[in-house]
Specification:
The chain has 212 residues and is α+β, with helices and mostly antiparallel strands. The strands form 2 sheets. A 4-stranded antiparallel sheet has the order 4-5-7-6. Strands 1-3-2 form a 3-stranded antiparallel sheet. Helix 2 crosses helix 3 and helix 6 packs parallel to helix 9. The longest helix has 15 residues. The chain starts with a helix and ends with a strand.
């Protein structure tokens, strides 16, 4: 079996609508998700959720850990709960095969070597502002549509996912600066974007400017 065949098999698991809902619930959550919470979010029974969640773990789409949710230890504390989180690996496939990641890596390397950070940021900011739903009031929907998986953290809007993760890992200053500028162009006043990394997520966070 080729790597492409393996990827098709993995992504094929998400053709099941229940499995897809469960994956989205866990992947977008800022913290680990219990079986009960996942079942409630997907609108299915706990036993059915457990079956599908473990299939997603077997496929490498989710990862698990065990922890007592009560915080108690010792005899009588109960069994640790099985908790799910998005796995770190990436799965992508195109039909017919394409290699946009190679082109992106080469372009990023050239831009970084040439010191064209500001030019890239200007282009990203303009691209963000040119999006069809740019500057709308529904910032959460606009960010969710672009794969950022936003969630509330008090008054801060954090981003669970970085759509440019692979490139950002290899060229952090270049790509994170581009990402910040892109979001600045996308979101309207009074929202303000700034570098404030979310563990395991995006380097950018948003907050609303306070009136003077």
């Amino acid at each position: 079996m080729t790597d492409e065949d393996s990827t098709f098999d993995v992504l094929g698991l998400l053709s099941d609508p229940v499995r897809r809902r469960l994956y989205r619930c866990v992947a977008a959550a800022p913290e680990e998700v219990s079986r009960d919470a996942a079942a409630e979010a997907a609108g299915v029974s706990r036993s059915l959720a457990a079956f599908h969640l473990d299939k997603l773990v077997e496929a490498g789409l989710l990862a698990v850990s065990f922890r007592r949710l009560s915080g108690r230890t010792g005899p009588g504390a109960g069994r640790p709960a099985k908790l799910y989180r998005r796995a770190e690996g990436e799965h992508a496939v195109s039909v017919p095969p394409r290699s946009y990641d190679t082109a992106g890596r080469l372009l990023a390397e050239v831009l970084e070597d040439a010191g064209l950070d500001r030019e890239l940021q200007a282009a990203a900011r303009a691209a963000g502002a040119a999006q069809p739903d740019a500057r709308t009031d529904d910032v959460v929907a606009a960010l969710r549509a672009r794969g950022y998986q936003p969630f509330r953290d008090g008054e801060t809007l954090r981003l669970r996912n970085c759509p440019f993760h692979a490139l950002a890992t290899e060229f952090p200053a270049l790509i994170c600066g581009m990402n910040l500028a892109l979001i600045e162009g996308l979101v309207p006043e009074p929202w303000s974007a700034a570098m404030d990394p979310c563990p395991g997520g995006c380097c950018v966070a948003l907050s609303k400017k306070k009136n003077d």
